[in-house]
Amino acid sequence: MRTLTIRYTSFRTCPNCGGRGDDGASWRPFVCKRCEGRGRLVTGVEVEDSERGNLPRSAYDFNAKGEVYLLDLDEDEPVEVIRPESP
Ligand SMILES: [Zn+2]
Question: For residue 66, how far is its CA from the centre of ligand 1 (angstroms)?
Fold first, then answer.
């Protein structure tokens, strides 16, 4: 099966929580909604396609949570996405 291997290449500190991952409340702090507790946002990814090699940046999109979307993927094609444990 075709596989896509995702690697995160760069991050920035979450500006919403300052890298803490929560709102800093001393009692029952809330997990930061923006980074979901990770404290950082994904700003760069690499996607390696088992058929096409490293994909150009124009072939995919990603968000700060590290979710990657292929722009030209055939919906019917079975693809296994291998992503890091956590951004
Ligand atoms: Zn945050």
Answer: 14
